[in-house]
Amino acid sequence: MEYRSLGRTGVTVSPLCLGAMMFGPWGNDDREDATRIIHRALDAGINFVDTADVYSGGVSEEIVGMALEGRRDDVFLATKFFMPMNEDDPNQRGGSRRWIMREVENSLRRLNTDYIDLYQVHRPSPDTDVEETLGALTDLVRQGKVRYIGSSSYSGSQIVEAQWASRDRHLERFVTEQPPYSILVRGIEEDVLPAVQRHGMGTLTYSPLGGGWLSGRWRKDAASAPASSARPSARFDMTSPANQRKLDIVEELAQLAEQAGLSLIELAIAFVINHPGVTAAIVGPRTIEQLETYLPAADITLSTDVLDRIDQLVAPGVTVNPDDNSYGAHELTPHARRRPRP
Questions:
Q1: Does residue 49 contact residue 64 with C-beta atoms inside 8 Å?
Q2: CA dihedral 266, 267, 273, 274 (to 10 degrees)
Q3: H-state helical runs in 79-230
């Protein structure tokens, strides 16, 4: 497995990052099995692990901490904060100094470590000054509890704003961004990836399989498609023309993968990590069998012909179903759009 530079940090990481969201009650609640998956990933050459405090209410971090015992120094460990950790307490969430200083201690305890390599803001906040968040994170870096800081699901303008704030206020800067990216969700190619590259940041993308759409799980056969009653989100509403279009594209991609001698999963993940602006793709297996289907993609280089055909199916910068975009969403809320006077 060939390693890559994480922006301009001097750190090198694997092109696949092991995502731990499915470890715990949200996915695989067998801690020993989850530990085996983590160890298999490390043995295969993955040296990058990403989790978050909110995943299974902290259980994911506990499992990762247990699995890394004795191997902690071999891993570039990332976690995130921001999402609500107590629905009854409005201050146990967000990007305030008060919460960051408290929650980093909780994550350090759950991860059973003295330091976090990459501490990321899980989402931007329209209600919190970016200087507030950056100031607290800067103090954590200076205290040695955090090595680097990053953002997740920021829009291009938010990335630039944070970089300028760091420069003007002499604060630590975000060295990574974590956006959604797949063949079906290419919106970040328009502004996020250019902004990240311009500022020398690393990019670890999530959902390379498009939330399961590119896993081969759902095809045109109605019996295999997700039922909207089980998946009420607009992302999985099968009455949506955009989602019907996604099914059509998946059929074409499956044929393309077969012609290229690849599985659909390998094609999907290889597409992501073949982009020059992407450092690593986060893969989040629930089982060791799923992990095994992801690993070969790390060594696949797609031909120009294959990439051109993908561009014909989904044009660069296009997200087939806009509901799949999960970054900068507040910037286009109804009150932010121009509307005719009543």
A1: yes
A2: 140
A3: 97-111, 130-143, 156-169, 192-198
* Cross-strand pairs, 28: 23
The pLDDT score that the predictor gives to residue 237 is 79
| Catalytic site includes residue 55 | yes
* Topology (CATH) of 4-217+263-302: TIM Barrel (3.20.20)
The single residue of 3, 55, 148, 206 carrying the catalytic annotation is 55
Taking Cα atoms as reference points, which of 4, 46, 12, 51 lies closest to residue 275?
4
- Please give the model's pTM, rounded to 2 decimal places: 0.92
Q: Pairing state of beta strands 4-5 and 12-13? A: antiparallel
pLDDT tens track for 237-267: 778 898 899 999 999 999 999 999 999 999 9
Copy the structure tokens of residue 17: 């990052």
CA distance 244 to 237: 9
pLDDT of residue 217: 81
Pairing of β 76-81 and β 16-19: unpaired
- pLDDT category at 29 given cuts 50, 70, 90 is very high
The answer to whether residues 186 and 314 touch, using CB atoms and an 8 Å cutoff, is yes
Please state the domain extents for the chain: 4-217+263-302
